[in-house]
Amino acid sequence: MKENMNQSAAVQALILTGFGINCEEEMAAAYRLAGAEATIVHLNQVLHGQVSIHDYDILNFPGGFSFGDDLGSGVVLAKKLRYRQTPGGFTLLDDLREFISRGKFVLGICNGFQVLVKLGLLPNLGGNFEPEVTLTHNVSGRYEDRWVRLKVNANNRSPFLQGLDSFEVPVRHGEGRLLIPDEATRQRILDQNLNCLTYCDATGCEVTQYPHNPNGADLNCAGLTDTTGQVFGLMPHPEAFLSLYNHPDWARRKRVNKELSEEGDGLKLFRNIVKHVASLPHRSASSASLESVETPLR
Questions:
Q1: Rounded to whole angstroms, how far apart are CA atoms 234 and 139?
Q2: Domain that includes residue 170, residue range
Q3: What's the average model confidence in pLDDT over 60-68?
Q4: pTM summary value
Q5: Could you give the residue numbers annotated as active site?
Q6: Distance CA 205, CA 199 (A)
């Protein structure tokens, strides 16, 4: 691994796939559009020691249906990351602890968010990487596939969200309802501004009613960050709105406002994190590229 690379070197994003994850290509496209190098690998390549997460700046858990959600969304994958040992005798959770301690970043979207919550990386109030909240079935009792608007907590610590007020993205999930077990946990999340994204209406005002809030989440929560701001997860899919033309209402909007940007709202999050990482004075990323990684196992 190359230490202390020149700041101008491309930001490196590692994107995990396999076991039912299916949004890896969209996430890679988002990072590439934002100016980073994106590498997609099968999780087994990390678990078998063929790829090290420490050679990258940002580790990403995309959406999908890992292990078919058979025991609950994200449950089996979280267990695998907690208990499956690498050839070096460590678990990926051990590696994640070190990765975060080095000041690097973790993103989980939809199923990836569910994994991070059930693995204990979010919100991680106690700092011991144990589950403190959960994500469960939508109050509607059905899979929700719709566009939503999100309000950004102005006091959040995530560089993914800096400078953003509200933005629009789609949701696609059946288990997106955040449940907080007790009032003490709820208050700590609020006090530390970890509830970084909430569902809102077209004017940017937070609303709890369905379908603005598509799942009935506690705190109207669409996304959480950990106490460091380095780990960020959200149920909606920013990687699904990279271009204006992804939106079903793009034609009318473009007619009304001919100066409307052709970039989708979701791309802003990826531009933010790539710019932030590139600005860090002592980045320690590798020159890993697609050429240095074996073909993902399918």
A1: 18
A2: 12-290
A3: 94
A4: 0.91
A5: 110, 237, 239
A6: 9
